[in-house]
Amino acid sequence: MDLLIVEDDRDYATALQVELAALSHDVTVAASGPEALTAVDARAFDAVVLDSMLPVLDGPTVVRRLRERGHHLPVLMLTALGLATDKVGGLDAGADDYVVKPAAAIEIDARLRALIRARGWTGADGDTVRAGDIVVSPGQYRAWRGQRPLDLANLEFKLLAELARHAGSFVTRAMLIERVWGYDFEPATNIVDVQVRLLRRKLTAGGEADPITTKRGVGYMLAG
Q1: Where in the chain is the domain with CATH 3.40.50.2300?
Q2: Which of 10, 27, 116, 140 is deepest in the core (most CB within 10 A)?
Q3: What are 137's strand-pairing partners?
Q4: pLDDT higher for 190 or 30?
Q5: Helix, strand, or coil here: 148?
C-alpha cells in the first residue's frame, strides 16, 4: 500500500516508516496537518495513519477537512491517551478506525489491510434494504429515516446496512467486526460500541426513537 503517516514525533514517525516499509508498504511522512492535506491533494494514497494530537491542526480537524475536500481514503487514527473522548472525536470527524499509541507496525498493517478489504464491500445497484422507517440503498450509498436523508460516514453506513439486512434479529459483535471492519480477528477495543453510539446519534437526530436494541453478551438488533 501507498501510505501517508502524519506524525509530529520525528523518532516515532521514522520508526513506523522503517517498519511499515519492511512490510512492503511505500511510506511518506508528514509532520503536520497542513502538510498532510497538501500531500493528499497531490497524491493518491491508499490510506492515512494520522496522529490525533498534531500542531496547528489536530487529527480530527484534518480528517474533517479531508472529507470536506472529497477524499474518502481510509484513515487510521493514532491516539496517545486512549480516552473515549479522543476515540469518539476522531470517528465522529470521519476516521475509519483508531489504535492506541504506541502500536506495533504489524498491528497497524493488519488494521489497514482490514480497512482496505472492508472498502471493497458494495451492494448491487438499485438494491434497497428496509427496516421500519429506515431505508438503505447500497447501490446509491445513501440512507434515509422516513423522509430525512442520513449523513453517514463510511463505517456508519456499512454498520447500518449490516444491521438493516438482519433487522429483527441480533447481530453479534464478532459478525459486525468481520463484515463491517473486515477483521478476521477481534481487536481488543470497544470500536463496535463506539461506532454504534455514533450511529444512534444520527438515527435519532430528528427526535425519533432509538431503533437499535443492545443485548449484553449477544449483540445489536435494528427494529424491523
Answers
A1: 2-119
A2: 27
A3: 142
A4: 30
A5: strand
